[in-house]
Amino acid sequence: MLTVDEALQLVGQHAAQLAPIRIRLRDALGLVLADEVTSDVDSPPYNKAMMDGFAVVASDRSPTRTIIESIMAGDVPRRPIRPGTTARVMTGAPLPDGATAVVPVEQTELVDDRTVRLEWIDPPPGKHIMPQGLSMSSGQCIAAAGRRIDSITMAVLAEAGAAVLSVVPRPTVSVLTTGNELVSVDERPAAGQIRNSNGPLLTSALCEGDYAPSVLPSGRDELDELVELAQQGLEADVLLVTGGVSAGVKDLVPAALAQAGVQQVFHKVALKPGKPLWFGIVPREHGPPRLVFGLPGNPVSGFVCFHLFVIPALAVLAGRADSVVLRLSKGTSMGEFAYGGGREMFRPAYVDAQQRVEIFPWHGSADLAGMVRANCLVRLSETGVELAAGDRLEYVRLPGINPGK
Amino acid sequence: MLTVDEALQLVGQHAAQLAPIRIRLRDALGLVLADEVTSDVDSPPYNKAMMDGFAVVASDRSPTRTIIESIMAGDVPRRPIRPGTTARVMTGAPLPDGATAVVPVEQTELVDDRTVRLEWIDPPPGKHIMPQGLSMSSGQCIAAAGRRIDSITMAVLAEAGAAVLSVVPRPTVSVLTTGNELVSVDERPAAGQIRNSNGPLLTSALCEGDYAPSVLPSGRDELDELVELAQQGLEADVLLVTGGVSAGVKDLVPAALAQAGVQQVFHKVALKPGKPLWFGIVPREHGPPRLVFGLPGNPVSGFVCFHLFVIPALAVLAGRADSVVLRLSKGTSMGEFAYGGGREMFRPAYVDAQQRVEIFPWHGSADLAGMVRANCLVRLSETGVELAAGDRLEYVRLPGINPGK
């Protein structure tokens, strides 16, 4: 059976950044720049007053000055400042020619409408002035290709006039849950039935990862129905199917996916929980292939596979990462814990701000309710592990998960 | 002038959790539960097979068994298992009465359609079975009031039948930028003009905090226009206004807000950058007052005030926090840095996974482009600070900000 690392490598061979698209800046939050962006303006665009006050010639020592105009942000100064004169300036206003410092209004006193007395007559040159182009200059690269657009970058791009951008699109992801036993949250399960938790789990986890899921109707264990739903799901860049990938006679998902044109890459990974994981692709003429993950129907197993395989693959499609790898963090164990080994295990646990990891009691892969305290998955080696308090360990963080209040 | 702590306390006196609403589970991601939720089902709802295999009486040692039925998830077993008989079971299937263990299919061999030979004849009782109700039982509290609904909680709530929930709503937030100098990202700034970066900055930062902003048209520095826009903005729980709060003659925002019915709570805080911060309220008959923040027009100053005051206030309204406080984290300085003091400063910086903080070169509050590397704000005392490499410091993390790739 493939190891987790071998399976990740196989996924990595088929996951590639999506072809760039051009979009408006307002739609770009969270996306990755496909090209570098240069500014078309200086910032500030002029020597700018950083305080409300009076624009002066710094070397002028006269205690009173004649006020020749008032300038606020948005105005254009009309007259230069010379010794003996001043202009009232508001924060953000452009400085008139000749002005080399700003005396804050708090350090001045109005004598009359046209005259001000300065309590501070020797401001150093440049005081309370931001020189033109200091923050960014026209033609300068202000954001490199590969940068993810967060709020600060968004503001800088707006200032720089990047109204339309070339970005890596957000991959589209379809979610198809399968199983005769599933009923919706609105329904009362009859004997043998359970409510569908995989749908809400995966769509929410996709939202937490800043991906936009589309949800297909839950599929029954009938080949024709599954083929049709899979075909619909394959309109997306990535299709997630849950259930029907174990060795049971009714595990029709691999057959349905094959019939829908999906080429199997692997089935089963030496992973606990999550062994039945299935992975395939649909080549496309342009761009990277569509990826299809057949996740175990057990919600915990599917969730572990989602965070170990799907999230790293989506990060590559979205341009957020260069390769499909686990982002392992290092922490220490809060207490004792033993794992007998067998398959490599990723066990739900809680990590605090000091990277201390608590491996809390949990009833195994069917215990979804027992996972609500988890915000990470601790890696436990297939050769077995005996942890003492303070021992080093590695874990994968679950992004977007906020245990407790 | 108020200190940052005093100003936070004043905001805290007016910020309170919004009144709960009832919504459907699918709309609840990221919201906080107003009431505890109990399950209406056992999970698993039956003794459940955890492997594909054969359900047996654990104490039965006969090497071959007669297959009396096949059971998959969603089925209801019809016949009890007795010594000498077995039922084929798929992962997730309910176990028939009498069955006390599952022998995995890999450890069996079919003799004919009705007979199976077991390679493992003495499984311990309970092997590969999840007992009914082990994960959660009917009537049990599965999520406490105050829990924020993440993907795992969402899945547990779905399984438990919580189709409609009582939650704290997401506060609504209006964003009103003001200033004659502002043009949109699509426009070429004329002399004296700059592009509006505050709008994209604050709306994006609200999205990063999982709040949903609504954006008003940018307001010119005209009292009547500002009053009208402020009144529109006051339909939201929180109104953010940028610009027009300095001491300049054209700083009309406090006057416009007063005319729109906002009661000033404070104006100016001993904070760098961010001194002009203005805060007021509009009492409501039911529920906590609407909050109004007049943020400095300088984008960096406004952004600092947003993360120090607005985000903690929104967290209280949304039920994510009990009080309006800074979430300070501890780290160490990567290099030397000196701050001469004056006002308490929150300076943009970069913190890595090991809590090491780099205070990088930055041209002050008008240098928005110089902030793109920031993912935190380092607190520097008003009495001045001299940091050496390795010295301890405190910082506020900027949630949602992902510097670099």
From TrEMBL, chains A, B:
Keyword Magnesium: yes
Catalytic activity: adenylyl-molybdopterin + molybdate = Mo-molybdopterin + AMP + H(+)
Gene3D superfamilies to which the protein is assigned, alphabetical: MoaB/Mog-like domain (3.40.980.10), MoeA, C-terminal, domain IV (2.40.340.10), Molybdopterin biosynthesis moea protein, domain 2 (3.90.105.10), Molybdopterin biosynthesis moea protein, domain 3 (2.170.190.11)
Pathway given in the UniProt record: Cofactor biosynthesis; molybdopterin biosynthesis
Swiss-Prot/TrEMBL keywords: Magnesium, Metal-binding, Molybdenum, Molybdenum cofactor biosynthesis, Transferase
Pfam families: MoCF_biosynth, MoeA_C, MoeA_N
Occurrences of domain MoaB/Mog (ranges): 174-316
Cofactor: Mg(2+)
PROSITE patterns in the record: MOCF_BIOSYNTHESIS_2 (PS01079)
EC number per UniProt: 2.10.1.1
InterPro entries: MoaB/Mog-like_dom_sf, MoaB/Mog_dom, MoCF_biosynth_CS, MoeA-like, MoeA_C_domain_IV, MoeA_C_domain_IV_sf, MoeA_linker/N, MoeA_linker/N_sf
Any one Gene Ontology cellular component term annotated for this protein: cytosol
Gene Ontology MF terms in the entry: metal ion binding; molybdopterin molybdotransferase activity
SMART domains: MoCF_biosynth (SM00852)
GO BP terms, alphabetized: Mo-molybdopterin cofactor biosynthetic process
Annotated family: Belongs to the MoeA family.
Function: Catalyzes the insertion of molybdate into adenylated molybdopterin with the concomitant release of AMP.
Protein known as: Molybdopterin molybdenumtransferase
